[in-house]
Structures are given as structure tokens and as C-alpha cells.
Amino acid sequence: MIERENLILPNGKGWITLASLIAEKKYSKLFILVDENTEILCLPIFYIKMEEMNEWKILKIRDGEKNKNIETCIELWQELLLEGADRHSLVINLGGGMISDLGGFIASTFKRGIDFVNIPTTLLGMVDASIGGKNGIDFKNAKNQVGTVNQPKLVVIEHSFLKTLPKEQLISGMAEMMKHSLISSKDSWNRFVTSDLNDKAIFENLIWESIEIKNKIVQRDPLEKGLRKTLNFGHTLGHAIESHCLDNPYREALLHGEAIAIGIILATFLSTELLGFPQNELLEVYNTIESYFPKQKFSKNEISNIIKLLSYDKKNIGGKVLFVLLEEIGKPKTDCFVSDSLIFNAFEFYEKS
Amino acid sequence: MIERENLILPNGKGWITLASLIAEKKYSKLFILVDENTEILCLPIFYIKMEEMNEWKILKIRDGEKNKNIETCIELWQELLLEGADRHSLVINLGGGMISDLGGFIASTFKRGIDFVNIPTTLLGMVDASIGGKNGIDFKNAKNQVGTVNQPKLVVIEHSFLKTLPKEQLISGMAEMMKHSLISSKDSWNRFVTSDLNDKAIFENLIWESIEIKNKIVQRDPLEKGLRKTLNFGHTLGHAIESHCLDNPYREALLHGEAIAIGIILATFLSTELLGFPQNELLEVYNTIESYFPKQKFSKNEISNIIKLLSYDKKNIGGKVLFVLLEEIGKPKTDCFVSDSLIFNAFEFYEKS
């Protein structure tokens, strides 16, 4: 069902549809955007899957969130021009969230918009970044400040790319899966907590469930007028933590999921304080996340800086930072005001638990 | 009629609607984008028209097409961030086509898109640039290579801004009015040729007619799948001439309309050669344009360079440069192939007539 509605297609079906799309649209040129990693690890798989075709032009960028910026965009727009890309060219984003965010933005703005396809190669990309049409780049230490909302022509989900991922990247993607379950239903959360994630078939089913949760939400509210905001659970502080670590020379950058995992714990604590979210479920969320993600430490000054970064959050209205919290699992509430002192308490809970 | 469909509103009605829009949407912050000229000449008029409100923040950029680039965008995104703009802020573009092109792009990409309003202060802006939602910037010597299609919330047409314009700017806008008439109908063209443009009321009616022609086309085909392409009559070579002069240290930059005026003559000549457009009407078009616009001279080398620049035209498909030509006045034909040698002939006709 999901497949027909939004053209998110798993494995074999995705590749066949990509081939038909290219044949039907008669694109003038075919570009594949890769980074240093996906060029080596994923492009060979792409070539095998699409062996009938061979007229690809490769656009290659440096790996890592720190390159998701306007300078990289300028390089890519220029390369597209030099390579003779026109309005009927196609860009295929082969990579994780950084590639689909940046490649989606490039394609959405080159000559006022050309077609693009997302082929996520990370777990995070599959269950989150590649779906819903949000694209963009970081700007002046704040995440995704410049971008558009524009749907890809197709998303190809190919589970075998997951084999190319280092373990921490796989775990990073699980933060978004947890978030999807937490905002969706107790059943979904329980399935996540109790399933054997080492069983390939079970894990792939959970991935598909996660894709479906996100896709249903973004289809009902593509421009984030209401429902889609719930997807920001854990992201308000998560993004600020991510920006803080990216920008701080004394800290190692966190993977997106690593920052979001902390953000989920903090937001769940705030939910307990402000909306009466059950204490025992807070501990379950905490323990589940702690079983996958290494604990981080933040000084008082760092927390202050993180709170300062909240002011760049795109969901803010009139200077107020608004959170998505949970009344209970599966019952998100948007536009919740949270005081700075309660945020300090949340960090204290996270660090002391 | 047009007013309800697309919220393009003349004079008094436009200002009242802008005030209601701001009241209704409760924007968190109101930004006005101006350049060095419109700050001095148009902002005072704006303040008088909107005297009930006073919480404006001014974004100021340097005047001129050469600043319609990514560097100016970076400055503006940064200023919006520093001034605390959020998703519920409004950008009002007060200026000519350069301001609405750039401001529309900034607003369409800041935090993945915020509302914007166009208040064109030039004739060109009123009859063309502010309508239809195309925005963008020039990139690497080629026009509007980066941008989006995204409609403004409202376009306010205030004729009294035209009094602030130098004469050549007013005439520049007339090139687009001529184009609208030429692709629309013989009646419209005859009205333009035979009317006394010094009569204020007659001229304002012609402006409104021109807005209606453009608006009907962009409403029927917002994403330029077919019909909207006809608006590119005169623009294929016109844009290349404009880029050539902008980039050439030995030439003075042409105003957009001045370049388009030449483009219209060239395209009409090509129409005669390729589609049997009537010779006598070619001369009428030529004479009408020559009565307003100064003649330019181009060397063989310059014409070669202009032809080279055609390859960046956004309408190109698969490396072929495609023109909009006229079978007769009011009957445009899109996707016409034109050889380089015929383009040389067209320049010869233009210069020798």
C-alpha cells in the first residue's frame, strides 16, 4: 500500500522501478551523488543492480556532516553546470542522510528544480532522512537552516547496503526507529524492545514498520502544519547537542542518532515532569537507549551553550522554544513550553541515572 | 477576477490586504528587503501606506543584477538568523526584479521556506518578475541557475512607485509588456502600439493587461510544463546577451529589458525565417522597439560568445538550444531548433536594419 502512495520501494522492486523511471522520463543526463565512503562501498552494488545502464556521471563530495554546507552546494551546482546538466537531468542520491539532504537541496534548486531519487545506504537514511522530502544544509553552526520541502521521485530501500555500515552507524539509525515507535504506539515500542534485532528478517520488518510510521505522517502533513511536528520528538535538544559537539573543538562530533538518543531521554524526562509520562516507562526508554548508546558528559557551560543553540530551532515561534513531549507512549503533544531550569534538570537526570 | 485567483492587488486594495494578512497570520517578525535605491525612494512611501504598523526590520542589499548571487544570499540568511527570524516571519520584497528574485529565493529556502510578499517598484517587476513565483540567483555568469518556483502570499501593485524610476528603467519594463502582447494577441499588440503611453490612465490599463496575460499563463502552467514556456519569447538570446554584457569588462551592463528588447527583435527575425512570420509585422516590431531602445553593436566574437552562453539556458534539453518563436502575433511555438548561422543572420538583420 505504502508503495503505491509514495513510491518508497524495497529491494528488487525499487531497482526495477528506477530503471523504468529512467526509461520513461528519458532523462538527458544521469548523475549519482556519492561521498568518499559510498563511492567505495555502495556504488559497486548500485552498478550491479543497474547493470543494464551505464551512462552515469559521478558527483563526489567529502564525507561527514561538517561538509553539509553552502560551500559544497556551490561546488555541486558548478559541477552540474560544467557537466552540462539541464532541466531534464536526474540526480540520484546514493548515501546517508547527509547525501540525501544535500543532494535533495541541490536538485530542488538547480535550474529551479530537477528530478531526484533517494537511495539511502544507512539505516538512518532508510527510516528517516530519505523520506518526506525535507532537504537542506547546515548554516552558521545550526542544522538545516537552509533548504526546501520537495519530494523525491522515488526512494529505493535496499537492505543489503546496511552490510556496508560500521556498527555505530547502524546503532545511530536505531535512535530514529525508537522515536518512531515512541510517538506511534505502545505495540510498536514493545515490538522494538522485545524483538531479536540480530535476526535479519525481524530487523528488516522493524525497518519497514519504521518507514511506514514516518511515511504515513509526512503524507498526511507534508508541510509540517501540525502532525508532522511530532517527528521532532527528541530533536529539539538533540539537534542543539549535535550542533554543539560539531562546533566545539574539545568534543568529538556525535553521529546524528547519538545526539538524538540523548535528546529522546531528555524529552522523555521532560514529559514525565510536565505531562505525567509514566516513570517506569521513562526508565524503560532510558535503559533501552543506554543499552545501545555510549553515555556523554556535558559541563554546565556546555549545557548553557546547548540551550543557547535552541534559539535557532526551526520550530520556534516568536522566540519561544517549543518541544514535542509525550503524554504517554504513542501520545505526542506538540508546542510544549519548557523552562531552561527544567532543561538543566533533564541533563542531570540523564547523567546521574 | 485575477485578484481573487492569485492575490495580485492594485494600489489601495493591495495595502489593505497586506495589513490584513499580517494581522491574520500574526507573523513573529516582519522583514523588508530593500536595495540602496528602494530604501531611499520607496521605503518612505511604504511607511506611509502601512502607517498603522511600525515593527519593521530592514534587510538591505547592494543594488544591481551583479549582486543577485549566492554571496548576497549567504549574507541575508545570516542576517535573518541574527535578527531572530523564525518560520513564522514574513519577508516583504520591496524593489525590482532583482529584489523579488533574490528575496523570493531567500524566503523559499530559509528554514525550508517562510512566507513572502512582493511589492514591485519597477515596471519590469510589476508586469513580470513579481508574478508567477519564479525566484533565483545568477550563478557563474549564467542567469537564474539556482532558484525555486514558489508563490508569494500576495503581490501589491502600487503604480505610484513608477514615479521613482529613471526613464530607462521604465522603458526597460516595456520590453516585457511588448513580449506579453506579442505572444498574446494582435489586439493586445495593436493596443500597445497605438496607445498614448504618456496618458497615465491608459498606461496603467496597459500595465494591468500585461499582468493579466502573464498571470493567466502562470496559473494554467505554474511549473512550466508547456504553456509557460511561451513567456520565454525573446529571452533565449536576450538572457545570453544580458549575461555577455554583464560579464564583459569592455561593455556596459544592459538593463534586463534592454537585452530582452534585442532578443525580441532577433526572435521575431528567426520567426520570419523559420515559421513564415509576416515580414511587415517584423518591421513593425523592429520599429516599435527601436523607437524606445538604443541600438547596440556586437562584434563577430561577441556573437560567438553569446551563442556559447546559450548552452546554459535552462530550457535546453539534451544539449539542444530551443527557442520560442512566433507563427504570427499571438501564436507562439515552443521548442524550435535554430542553427548558429541563422543566429548570426539575425544579429545582422538587427544591426543593419
From TrEMBL, chains A, B:
It is an enzyme of class 4 (lyase). GO terms for molecular function: 3-dehydroquinate synthase activity; metal ion binding; nucleotide binding. It is found in: Cytoplasm. Residues 173-316 form the 3-dehydroquinate synthase C-terminal domain. The keyword Zinc-finger does not apply. Its cofactor is Co(2+); Zn(2+); NAD(+). This is 3-dehydroquinate synthase. It comes from Aequorivita ciconiae.
